[in-house]
Amino acid sequence: MYDVILRQGRVIDPKSGHDAIADVGFAAGKVAYMGASCPGSAAQEIDVTGLIVTPGLIDLHTHVYWGGTSLGVDADAFSRRDAVTTMIDTGSAGAGNFPGFRKHVIEPATARILVLLHVSFAGIYGFSKRVMVPEGQELRLFSAEDCVETIEANRDLIVGVKVRIGRNASGTAGLLPLEIGLQVADRVGLPLMCHIDFPPPSYADTVALLRPGDILTHAFRPFPNAPYHGAAGHEKVRDEVWAARQRGVIFDIGHGMGSFSYHTARIMLSQGFAPDTISSDVHALSQFGPAFDLTTSLSKFLALGVKIQDVIAAATTAPAAAIRRPDLGHLAVGGVGDASILRLAEGSFDLVDVEGEHIMAEHRLLAAGMVMGGKICVSP
Ligand SMILES: [Zn+2]
After folding, report:
1. pLDDT at 103
2. CA 140 → CA 98, 121, 144, 158, distances in Å?
3. Which of 14, 147, 173, 229 sits at 20 to 30 Å (Cα–Cα) from 100?
4. pTM confidence score
5. 252 CA to middle of ligand 1, Å?
6. Is 365 within 8 Å of 344 (Cβ atoms)?
7. Ligand 1 mean position to 42 CA, how many Å?
8. Could you say which architecture CATH assigns to the domain 55-322?
């Protein structure tokens, strides 16, 4: 007897290479059956013929400290609408306001929220349409000691360190906020995610500092501070970018409102440089476009010619590996009972990037349903 059986969906599990029509059964919060035809019965049996079943989607770059920060969106509403079972909040909170995030948002949420803690004591505190304060410039807030203490006390939820550098996020502070972040990450033995925006500092100088396992988000941003250089028609992926990939730095999309351009993506993909992870950077100012959500970000890569199996991997196995949570992001008997149910819709879909370039796509992924902890959370 199962709690839930999803019958006859196209089950794509990148970790095992599985891509076939199958049944997936859930019992006691875990995946209990995966195969051609589940012989048992369940309290809830759902025919998902024509739909895609994937491991629970993981959005590696979100802002969900709703109410505690001006940029936060409501985690459960976003999760249910977009079939994202795990959201990584990237730096909304710092040591000074993490306890409220934990108690008022993360613990009551149905969705799984994991955290990259900002080195800035107050997190990202001045981010709205009219108020935009670069927290990285206020170095009095960069207390490595407090950040380490908070991480040590909350290792069940905190999976890494976040820092934001660039003219918008750290003003004139240069690489110093990143250097402090790296010291913290070293002390706690966790990865660091670095945001990059306008120079200075340069893309090359920034990526050169990242260690194996660290994550560069906004990796496919437009000029200036793009991952390529050279005149129009002769662009080349920067040597520092290739070197960083070689040593194991992770390149994340983090679409957001200003950080993903088709032009950059085409150059990168044509030279064999696909992103490691695809994330939305959903926040108060990007949720109504151009980022919208994770399935929209994934659909943009489908439209650029990336295979669906690779697109799904970039939002399941790859982010799970990046946050060192191999229990998440795959479907296997005995494993975490999270699954996303998606529809690969056919038609004509207008997908716009941050530079205002529109692609009319023939396919796009849409959220259809979601299983969390072995229970139907959103019915398809
Ligand atoms: Zn962000």
Report:
1. 98
2. 18, 9, 11, 23
3. 173
4. 0.98
5. 11
6. yes
7. 40
8. Alpha-Beta Barrel (3.20)
CB-based contact 181:151 (threshold 8 Å): no
Whole-angstrom CA distances from 174 to 42, 137, 139 are: 57, 9, 11
Give the DSSP per-residue string, 174-219: TTHHHHHHHHHHHHHT--EEEEE-SSSSPHHHHHHHPPTT-EEEST
| Homologous superfamily of 2-54+333-378 | Urease, subunit C, domain 1 (2.30.40.10)
pLDDT at 239: 97
Please give the distance, rounded to the nearest whole angstrom, from the Cα atom of residue 80 to the centre of ligand 1: 20
- Ligand 1 centroid–CA 91 distance in Å is 7
Distance CA 20, CA 42 (A): 22
**What is the DSSP pairing of strand 18-27 with strand 30-35?**
antiparallel
pLDDT of amino acid 119: 98
Percent of the chain with pLDDT over 70: 100
Question: How far is ligand 1, taken at its centre, from the CA of residue 369, in Å?
Answer: 26
- Helix, strand, or coil (residue 358): strand
CB contact burial 46-74 (16+ within 10 A = b; e otherwise):
bebeebbbbbbbbbbbbbbbbebbbbbbb
CA of 61 to the centre of ligand 1 (A): 6
Q: Is the peptide bond before 99 cis (omega within 30 degrees of 0)?
A: no
Whether 2-54+333-378 and 55-322 share one fold: the answer is no
Q: How far is the CA of 63 from the centre of ligand 1 (A)?
A: 6
- Around Cβ 343, how many Cβ atoms within 10 Å? 18
Sequence spans of domains, the chain? 2-54+333-378, 55-322
The rounded Å distance from CA 134 to ligand 1 centre is 13
